[in-house]
Input
Amino acid sequence: MALLVRNQDDYVIHNLEEDGSSDEELGHGDEVEETFDPVCSLCDNGGVLLCCEGRCMRSFHSGEEGEADSDCVTLGLTRDEIQAMRSFKCPNCEYKIHQCFSCGELGSSDEQLGAQVFQCDKATCGYFYHPNCVARRLHRHNEDAATELKERIRAGESFDCPLHVCYVCRQPEDVADPNLQMAVCRRCPKAYHRRCLPRRIAFGDNGVEGRVQRAWEGLYVNRILIYCMRHEIDEFLGTPLRDHIKFPGDGYGSDSAIVVDISSGAPECSMDESSISRDMSSLNMEVAPPKTMLAEKLEDDK
Ligand SMILES: [Zn+2]
Ligand SMILES: [Zn+2]
Ligand SMILES: [Zn+2]
Ligand SMILES: [Zn+2]
Ligand SMILES: [Zn+2]
Ligand SMILES: [Zn+2]
Output
């Protein structure tokens, strides 16, 4: 049962199997909300998403069905390909090779074969890290503590990654208190409470010339999506360049190769023409950059 989830507002689950059995296995929408990312890992927009049922908990625009209104590269899968899957696992989860969320490099996450990257212990966090990378971030000013933690993680000890404490005040998240909800960077393990968010990470330009939007509400439940100051915002995309996702090998093979175009501002997707034309009626041919889409989304939620 490959899962498609439609944006964060309603979490409609499109069960692609006929018998409907997966509804029960899945339980209620709330669980989906907690387990699956309502934002595509490739383009950071919502919409109809294909959810990985592996360890990463990420979601992706599949390439199927009316999704071309975001200029996402997508996974380049057709509806037939998705339907043929019992369940969807992204190439990283399939091959047990995940990216370190700190340095971006791929490493084996296979404990049996000797893992190089290890997953954060928080149940809702799908990020992996090299022991050294995460230990250095958790102990920014204490080399000895970092080295010790690195060894412990390497030996299999669990850890919570830096996304679960505020970078400024070092206190944890509290979703019940809007001021203590987390603003979480989409591209690196850095998080701030709403009240601790640096002014430059703004929800709009705030009338300051040259300031770009770096924070969005309404994409996550009880969380804020941000791009921290480390990442330059591409003017056209309204997001940092989308060169951040690495899949091992050739993805799904030659027919539906995953095209993650690093250099171009207008990435190609490998959807064939028939699947594009199917959606022409519903498609606004003026492809809006995500900046605009996200802004509209924000307006809607007010
Ligand atoms: Zn996408
Ligand atoms: Zn995955
Ligand atoms: Zn790393
Ligand atoms: Zn984490
Ligand atoms: Zn804080
Ligand atoms: Zn960041």
